[in-house]
Write a structure and sequence with these properties.
By secondary structure, the protein is of the alpha/beta class. The strands form two sheets. It has a seven-stranded parallel β-sheet, sandwiched between helices. Strands 2-1-3-4-5 form a five-stranded parallel β-sheet. Helix 2 runs parallel beside helix 13 and helix 6 packs across helix 8.
Length: about 350
C-alpha cells in the first residue's frame, strides 16, 4: 500500500519527493540522529533548512510545516491535536524517533487516517540487555557478595545466601511486550525454563516463542526470577501485589525495568527488608526514591536511576530505526513498526 493513499495500491515514491520536517526538542536532533543518519534522511526526503519545530505557537512554525507530508518527531515533541492538524493539511505520516507516542499524539491523528510509527522496538533492545544482565548478576548474588566484601574484606562466604547461579532456573516474565520478547531471545543463552504471563499471548504464539504461558500466580510461585515487562496502564498498576510477592519462593529475584507503579511498593519493601527476596529495580515509586529510603541500605537490592532504556551510544539506534521507516515510505512499502489505534490501550 502506498503511504500517501492507504486505500489504494500504488507506485513507489521517488527518493527526495516526500516533504518532511522535524518536530522535537531542538537539542534532541543531534542526540537522536548521527551525522550519517541525518545525511541519509536528506537523501531520502526533502527537509527544510531550519531548526526542528519544538513549539507550534512560535511565529512561522505552521508556515514552515504547511507542505509537510511527513513529520519526524522525537523527545520534546509538542502535542499534535486537531488545531495543529488543521494547519498541516498534507500530513500523512508521523515517524517517531523515540518510544511512546501516547504523550503527544491526540486521537484526532488516527481519526484523520494519519499513519504512525515508533522506534519503541529499538528502545527495547537496551532494556532487554539490561534485564538479561540483571538476571545473570542477580542470580550470581553479586550485590550480596559485593556488600559482604566491602563490610568484611574477607573471602566470599555464601552461607545463608539464596541459591546461586542460572543453571536450570525458572524465569518468569510478566508481559510479552517488545522488551519481553527481546528478553526471551536473550534467555536462549541460558539453561532456563521461561514462563510468561500475558493475557494477550495465546498458546500457539507462546509455543512459537519457546515459552510456557501461565497464570500470574503460577508464574510467581514457580519462578526463580520474576521480571516485569508490562505497560503502565490501569489494568497493570499494582499487578505484582502483596499476594503475588508472598507466593514467591525465598530468594526469588524481582526485576523491574518497566514502571514502578506495576509493583506494590510497600509490599515489596517489606519483603526486601526481611531479606526473603532480592531485587534489581531500575524504576520505583516514587522515582527517584528519597535519600533516606531503606532500600538504599539493603545488600539484597540494586537500585539504578532509570537507565535501562537507550542512553549514550544506544540512542542513535532510535534515529537509525526512524531512518529505516522513512526509507520504507519513500519506496512505497508499509511501515515495519506501525503504532495502531487499536493497540494504544494496551501498549506503553
Amino acid at each position: 500500500m502506498n503511504w500517501m493513499e492507504p486505500a489504494v495500491t500504488t507506485n513507489h515514491q521517488q527518493a527526495g519527493t516526500i516533504k518532511a520536517a522535524f518536530v522535537m526538542g531542538r537539542n534532541n536532533l543531534p542526540t537522536l540522529f548521527s551525522p550519517e543518519d541525518l545525511a541519509r534522511l536528506r537523501g531520502i526526503v526533502t527537509l527544510p533548512d531550519a531548526e526542528p519545530v519544538a513549539d507550534f505557537t512560535v511565529p512561522g512554525a505552521f508556515e514552515l510545516l504547511a507542505d509537510a507530508e511527513l513529520l519526524i518527531t522525537g523527545w520534546g515533541a509538542p502535542t499534535i491535536d486537531s488545531f495543529v492538524l488543521d494547519h498541516l493539511p498534507r500530513l500523512r505520516c508521523i515517524v517517531h524517533a523515540a518510544g511512546t507516542v501516547k504523550t503527544f499524539l491526540s486521537p484526532e491523528v488516527y481519526a484523520r487516517g494519519i499513519q504512525v510509527s515508533s522506534s519503541a522496538a529499538a528502545n527495547a533492545v537496551p532494556v532487554a540487555e539490561f534485564t538479561f544482565a540483571a538476571i545473570v548478576m542477580g542470580l550470581k548474588r553479586a550485590r550480596r557478595f559485593s556488600e559482604q566484601l566491602r563490610a568484611t574484606g574477607a573471602s566470599r562466604n555464601a552461607a545463608g545466601f539464596p541459591p546461586i547461579g542460572t543453571n536450570g532456573v525458572t524465569i518468569g516474565l510478566v508481559g510479552a511486550s517488545r522488551v519481553g520478547r527481546q528478553v526471551i531471545g536473550l534467555l536462549k543463552n541460558l539453561d532456563a525454563r521461561v514462563l510468561v504471563y500475558d493475557p494477550y499471548l495465546d498458546a500457539v504464539e507462546a509455543s512459537n516463542l519457546g515459552v510456557e504461558s501461565v497464570a500470574l500466580d503460577q508464574l510467581c510461585a514457580l519462578s526463580d526470577v520474576v521480571s516485569v515487562h508490562a505497560p503502565d496502564i490501569t489494568e497493570t498498576r499494582g499487578i505484582i501485589g502483596a499476594r503475588q510477592l508472598r507466593l514467591m519462593k525465598d530468594g526469588t529475584l524481582v526485576i523491574n525495568t518497566a514502571r514502578g507503579a506495576l509493583i506494590d511498593a510497600a509490599a515489596l519493601t517489606a519483603e526486601l527488608v526481611s531479606g526473603r527476596l532480592d531485587a534489581y529495580l531500575d524504576v520505583t515509586v516514587p522515582e527517584p526514591l528519597p535519600a533516606d529510603s531503606v532500600l538504599h541500605t539493603l545488600p539484597n537490592v540494586v537500585l539504578t536511576p532509570h537507565i535501562a532504556g537507550a542512553m549514550g551510544n544506544e540512542i542513535h539506534r532510535l534515529g537509525s530505526h526512524a531512518v529505516m521507516e522513512v526509507r520504507r515510505l519513500s519506496e512505497g512499502l508499509p511501515l515495519a513498526y506501525p503504532v495502531l489505534a487499536a493497540d494504544l490501550a494496551r501498549i506503553a
